């Protein structure tokens, strides 16, 4: 059982008042708040070991390199990657997806197919569209049903020998649906297709086991799992990372440079051109340690309770409709109130200290499916409480009275 008060004390921002009211932070899907250990780890790096890595013989450079590589090892353990060099530091999920999509430009031929799901964030749609434009491949979309669940019978039918890569999120940011990724990975592999999993919304809630999943790529951002912005991970199977060409050229990623020809460094450096986000990489390790110290079983239990309580309390409000009612869901509730624009509710409840996201959540195709401009999204983290949900429900009721 989590001691919520003790956990909340780890997050200095949660004691703040916003617009004169205690902050209720329900925009965890956009980014999580940061515990003091993570904030301290950032200062500690700059105060004690700041230096460029992998190149200096001097002590600070070695200390920084060791800390950075130690963190890579922590993340390898966390996601159960077979090799440390399969764990690449990136600036975030978006960068990781673009890196892979760019690499597939050297593999795809006209007539090949890329399968994306209808539940994707724009960052897992647009890079694949750009790839298809470049290569003459075709983008195919796995449809969903009214509950916001991907339709597996349709997925099975879309797969063929033409399918070269399937790309799907582990958990949907807009609706909270947990997708049947293990089934999808195994099925895609029957056709020889690679599978990329966008884990941006999964890593705050689950510990992914990339070997058990057998996915070819798994990408995520540090800032959604208590880490800093500007750092993320691309896990790729060694064979795939060796097959894909480098994404960016520059320092760090080379073996030898002459004007005639450059040879590339071994993994992971082949994909890590330039001075990386050293502090971010090191601090992501601290964030992973923090989340493991809370424990993912505890995190899931707390969040499931919040999801159930939040769903039940919100449905008390007349005219409120929840989008995304999948059988397996994480702690995200996307909803609208009949006759009221989501933006208006979001703006009023912000004045009451409640932070939610309103809009299309970078998932316009999902909004188009439901024929709505957007939703109000409350996304809960393990440090949220039922009392905060009560405060949100009261604030929404007040906003509704004002707007009707
Ligand atoms: N995919 C999903 C499912 C997301 O929720 C997000 C962030 N909202 C992204 C990708 C993009 O992540 P980032 O902006 O950190 O690159």
Automatic annotation (TrEMBL):
Keyword Lyase: yes
Gene3D superfamilies: Aspartate Aminotransferase, domain 1, Type I PLP-dependent aspartate aminotransferase-like (Major domain)
Domain Aminotransferase class V: 24-391
Chain coiled-coil ranges: none
Pfam (any one): Aminotran_5
EC number: 2.8.1.7
Protein name: Cysteine desulfurase
Native source organism of the sequence: Flavobacterium degerlachei
């Amino acid at each position: 059982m989590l001691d919520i008060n003790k956990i909340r004390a780890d997050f200095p921002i949660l004691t703040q008042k916003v617009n004169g009211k205690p902050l209720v932070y329900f925009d965890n899907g956009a980014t999580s708040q940061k515990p003091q250990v993570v904030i301290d780890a950032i200062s500690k790096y700059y105060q004690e070991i700041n230096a460029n890595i992998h190149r200096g013989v001097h002590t600070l450079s070695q200390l920084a390199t060791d800390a950075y590589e130690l963190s890579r090892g922590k993340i390898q353990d966390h996601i159960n990657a077979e090799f440390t060099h399969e764990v690449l530091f990136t600036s975030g999920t978006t960068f990781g997806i673009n890196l892979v999509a760019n690499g597939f430009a050297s593999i795809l031929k006209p007539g090949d197919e890329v399968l994306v799901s209808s539940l994707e964030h724009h960052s897992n749609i647009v890079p694949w569209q750009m790839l298809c434009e470049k290569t003459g491949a075709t983008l195919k979309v796995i449809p969903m049903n009214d509950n916001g669940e991907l339709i597996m019978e349709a997925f099975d039918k879309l797969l063929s020998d033409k399918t070269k890569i399937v790309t799907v999120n582990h958990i949907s940011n807009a609706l909270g649906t947990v997708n049947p990724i293990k089934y999808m990975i195994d099925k895609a592999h029957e056709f020889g297709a690679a599978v990329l999993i966008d884990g941006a919304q999964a890593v705050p809630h689950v510990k992914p086991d990339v070997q058990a999943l057998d996915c070819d790529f798994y990408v995520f951002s540090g800032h959604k799992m208590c880490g800093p912005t500007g750092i993320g991970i691309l896990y790729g199977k060694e064979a795939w990372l060796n097959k894909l060409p480098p994404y960016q050229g520059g320092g760090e990623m080379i073996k030898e440079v002459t004007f005639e020809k450059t040879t590339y460094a071994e993994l992971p450096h082949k994909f890590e051109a330039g001075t990386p986000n050293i502090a971010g990489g090191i601090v992501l390790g601290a964030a992973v340690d923090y989340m493991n110290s809370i424990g993912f079983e505890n995190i899931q239990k707390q969040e499931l309770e919040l999801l159930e309580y939040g769903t039940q309390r919100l449905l008390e409000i007349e005219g409120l409709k929840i989008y995304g009612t999948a059988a397996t869901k994480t702690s995200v509730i996307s909803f609208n109130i009949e006759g009221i624009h989501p933006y208006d509710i979001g703006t009023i409840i912000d004045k009451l200290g409640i932070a939610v996201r309103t809009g299309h959540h970078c998932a316009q195709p999902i909004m188009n499916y439901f024929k709505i401009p957007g939703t109000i999204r409350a996304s809960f983290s393990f440090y949220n409480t039922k009392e905060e949900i009560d405060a949100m429900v009261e604030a929404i009721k007040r906003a509704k009275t004002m707007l009707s």
